[in-house]
Structure prediction request, 408 residues.
Amino acid sequence: MDNYIITIGRQFGSGGRAVGQKLAEDLGIPFYDKELISLAAKDSGMNPEVFENVDEKAANSLLYSLSMGLYSFGSGFSAMGDLPVNDKLYLLQHKVIKELADKGSCVIVGRCADYVLRDRDDCVNIFIYAEMEYRKQEAVKKHGIDEARAEHIINKTDKSRSNYYSFYSGKKWGMAENYDLCINSSKLSEDKIVELIKNYINIR
Amino acid sequence: MDNYIITIGRQFGSGGRAVGQKLAEDLGIPFYDKELISLAAKDSGMNPEVFENVDEKAANSLLYSLSMGLYSFGSGFSAMGDLPVNDKLYLLQHKVIKELADKGSCVIVGRCADYVLRDRDDCVNIFIYAEMEYRKQEAVKKHGIDEARAEHIINKTDKSRSNYYSFYSGKKWGMAENYDLCINSSKLSEDKIVELIKNYINIR
Prediction:
């Protein structure tokens, strides 16, 4: 593959973000994770802080609103005034993700990017996950989370990501069939996962 | 890895069996799929034909019987007389799979082998799946299934495998987190999937 958009879904504490970052560095292509919030904010003229608390969290009204024909992507988001901020962020990130993919190769973490870009042939959709024990250690080491609360926070964060993914894509988060390649990061070092993904891109 | 038991879960029509067979050939190690039926039959002195219709199909009574302490693996299967044939086959295949793994490297397709061997560190658990359109073509080409009925048969077979897996392992079939590596076979040729798995084993 010459041009490729690599999307990475990831369980909390699996190191999926770090894998994506290393991969983007190695391949010399842009990397987007939290950056998608500021790009969405810039695009809308809103304060990014407003979006931070609702990032990758589903609201309940968007599908209803879309089904009622109240909003459309073609309308330039002019009718977004009454939408909950979660849905505003989803729509803005949706637009930003599509624009970034049009520009060329990149790595995009989370935010249903695999679903948003489902009509493109140049996407490599990856899911990174790990065993709970590994994720707990990662949560303590990398996110500074208290060991006693690590499992609770992991489950809560994953529940939120899962709801977000299901709500906007209609598919079950973490099912292998939504992705091209799924890798258990408890079994390989970060560098080796990056190597495996590069090998995958080379042979595809 | 020097010694490794490769287990392959697979959607019907994904080509997972062919991948396993090619992989075993390339690595020069034994391959077990339907062979597990005859080994189980031989072990029990039963007619293999009795088992063929119930292979990878769950019955409803085993967990109840086990929970009631009516049967145990240590009892040499002497108390299996009243069990449904599905459960007999599961117990016999469980025993055969453990014995094969003890003998050395091999490839085992289906039959919850990832779950049966969950306490071993030398297992590489793989799941192979594909998009429906690809699987329909494979079902017609490789299994001689009528095109009009292909999707129905694919869904029915997968439903049966899914029930079997959930029933005996207590986990959801096809969830990425049950495996070490999951590969969408619609995106890579059989040879390339084999290459990717060999690369995975090499770097692990």
